[in-house]
Every structure is written in structure tokens, then in C-alpha cells.
Amino acid sequence: MQHMFNRYVLFNFAGRGSRDQDADPAWAQLFGIPLFVGLFGLYWQFRKDWRMATSFLLLFIIMGYLIAFYQNQQEPQPRERDYFYAGAYFIFAVWIALGMRGLLDLVSGAARAPRQAVSGCAAVLLLAPHSSRENAADELRLARPLQKLAGMGLCVQHAPDMRAGCHPVHQRGQ
Q: Which residue ranges in the chain fall short of pLDDT 70?
């Protein structure tokens, strides 16, 4: 359980070292910024509304650790199973948003002028393109055309029998 859920949380919010299942998180990839902002968001939510924060924390535990315990997945899995934990990722994404809000509040409270608050927020937001660049190839699967080729092979092989059709093989009126 520890290996599955914790690893996937670190892969998504600290950086992924490689596509190997036994890889460690790559802290140099995203510098752990999303992870630390999310943890700060959890702290910020407990400061503002501890009842709502407790319910979010319970949802995170249920949709993360308890799902991993309930599934009893064996090591190693034939493929990645991180989609089982999507609910926990959504909760952590809310904490990231709350962490950003908390950082904005801290910066605006500490800054004497709004210009300093805006420049501090801009510095944080400049990290978003770096994060997108680091994760885009993995998410878009640009270097892995196998699924597309297999689907196109099915379309070509069964095109006369298919009513719904496949995109470039299907022609209207047939």
C-alpha cells in the first residue's frame, strides 16, 4: 500500500523519474513545488475552517489509502494503476488551489504596496510553464504511437463490418 499510493502522489506532485514502476520521484523535475503548495493549502484550510478541512482530509484518506488497502494490489502491477486514486488527486488539487490562495494572502499582507504582491504572485505563476513542459510529453503520449496504430489496425481490418466507422476509414453513405 505504501509503495502504490505514496509513489503515485509523489509522481504527480513532485515529479516522475521515469516510466519504470520502480522509479523514484524526480525532485529536480518539478522541485516539489506542487507538493509543498498542496501541503501548505492543507494547513491553510485547517487555519480557516477546520471542519471543512477535516472532511477533505477524510476524503483524501478514504479515496487514497483506504482504496489502496481495499484493492490489495500485488506488486508489481502489469501497468500503472494511478487512475484508482483520482479522487484523492482531486482533493490534493483543491489543496494546491487553497495553498495558492494562502500564499496570495500572505504576500499581500506582508507587502506594503500592491505592486510587490503582484510581482510575488507573478514569480509563483512563472513556474506553471516549467511544470507544463516537464509533464506534457508523458501526458500526451507523443512518443508512444502503439495505441493509435492498434486502433487504426482494428478499423482497417473490420471496416466493412463496422456501422459506426473509424476516422479516416469510414465514409458516409456506406
A: 1-2, 17-19, 21, 76, 78-79, 110-114, 116-117, 120-121, 123-124, 127-128, 130-132, 134-145, 147-148, 151, 154-174
- Beta-carbon count within 10 A of 74 CB: 8
What's the start-to-end Cα distance of the chain, in Å?
A: 52
Q: What is the DSSP letter of 84?
A: G
Contact present, 99 and 44 (Cβ < 8 Å) = yes
Q: Establish how many alpha carbons lie within 13 A of residue 144's alpha carbon, considering only the half-sphere containing its beta carbon.
A: 8
Per-residue pLDDT tens over the stretch 109-148 = 766 666 766 776 676 677 667 666 766 666 665 666 676 6
Going from N- to C-terminal start, the domains of the chain cover 2-143, 149-174
State the Cα–Cα distance between residues 52 and 36, nearest whole angstrom: 20
Q: Which residue has the cell 506534457?
A: 136
Q: Which three cell numbers stand for residue 140?
A: 500526451
Q: How many Å separate Cα 85 from the centre of its chain?
A: 10
| Distance (Å, whole) CA 15 – CA 10 | 7
